[in-house]
Write a structure and sequence with these properties.
- The protein is mainly alpha-helical and 310 residues long.
- The chain has one domain (5-305).
- The protein is built from 8 helices and 4 strands; from the N terminus they run ββααααβααααβ.
- The protein has helices spanning 24-49, 75-103, 109-134, 139-163, 176-202, 218-246, 251-273, 278-300, and strands at 5-9, 18-22, 170-172, 303-305.
- The protein has a two-stranded antiparallel sheet. Strands 3-4 form a two-stranded antiparallel sheet.
- It is flat and about 60 Å long.
- It is found in: Membrane.
- Pathway: Porphyrin-containing compound metabolism.
Length: 310
């Protein structure tokens, strides 16, 4: 198989037409990029939840005279350095996907554009991570850092979803009211994520025991956070039922989204009633990114490639 792409009959359109097929190398690189972006949320959560945010007190070096942790530093340094280490391969694969996407830009400009956005945000994340260390874990910057990581997970998931579909124009594949309800659900889930990030930043897991938080009341935010969570669940349940009964294109992904939300709500209730155990909070953070990525794919499945004419 060539390193660019091949053409084969479309299987998801009303009529058979030419569709793009990415090379195996590009597919592997895109999947690795997605996994790394999800993994760095988990390792970043470990940094925050173990109070290791300043385990490496300088950036880009770990200490003033060493790139790696020294014997004098604690296990916090190893956790923080481990998180930084993932940034290297993450950047490498972002660059690789961008290069491979550039090679096919004539037929897949959408993939090339998305790869450039991902690469730009990865570079931004590295810079923000350094500034966070320099500013001793400013709570607002830490929250911004997580949100950008979540956006990267969504973008790399979207890249994969589009990579398996035909190029060119797209048409709506669901009833208009279903599409409108999906976008409303996306908006509510965005509010859910933002309030969740603020709640975590106000709680006991801000990266270091001595870090000043943003001053908001965590207990109040926890209650505020719950409402968009339950509303999101209700909206997704409606979407799922609608998609199943009408056999709409996003039905499998609405099922996955509903399942993730159920698990997320269970974990959220457990952590709230158990004094915010670090492991549960970490699971909640990773699930939030996967839930957002799944919501992204549901939105993409509202449309399909236009069938070839003639």
């Amino acid at each position: 198989m060539s390193s660019a792409s091949t053409v084969s009959p479309a299987s998801d359109s009303p009529a058979a037409g030419p569709t793009f097929r990415a090379s195996r190398f590009l597919r592997i690189a895109a999947w690795v990029s997605f996994v790394l972006n999800a993994t760095i949320i988990a390792t970043g959560g470990a940094v925050r939840l173990t109070g290791s945010g300043l385990g490496c007190p300088t950036w880009p070096l770990c200490t003033a005279g060493s790139l790696v942790p020294t014997d004098e530093l604690s296990y916090h340094s190893l956790i923080e350095f481990g998180n930084r280490t993932i940034s290297g391969p993450l950047l490498v694969f972002a660059i690789l996907v961008a290069i491979l996407s550039w090679r096919i830009r004539a037929v897949r400009r959408d993939l090339f554009t998305m790869s450039l956005v991902v690469l730009t945000l990865v570079l931004l994340q590295a810079l923000v991570g350094g500034v966070i260390v320099w500013l001793h874990l400013n709570a607002n910057l830490v929250s911004f850092h997580y949100i950008v990581s979540l956006v990267l997970v969504c973008l790399t998931a979207a890249y994969i979803a589009r990579m398996y579909e035909a190029p060119g124009a797209r048409e709506r594949a669901v009833p208009k009211p279903f599409a409108i309800l999906t976008h409303i659900t996306t908006f509510v889930m965005a509010i859910l994520v933002v309030v969740g990030v603020l709640t975590t930043g106000a709680g006991p897991h801000s990266g270091d025991a001595d870090i000043q938080r943003h001053g908001l009341d965590a207990s109040i935010l926890a209650h505020v956070h719950a409402w968009p969570g339950y509303i999101s669940f209700a909206l997704v349940a409606v979407l799922f039922g609608w998609a199943i009964t009408r056999e709409l294109r996003p039905r499998r992904w609405t099922a996955a989204l509903l399942g993730l939300l159920i698990v997320q709500i269970i974990v959220g209730v457990y952590q709230s009633r158990s004094g915010l155990p670090p492991l549960a909070v970490g699971v909640h953070m990773v699930l939030a990114s996967l839930t957002a990525a799944t919501m992204t794919i549901v939105v993409l499945r509202l449309k399909r490639p236009v069938a070839a004419q003639g």
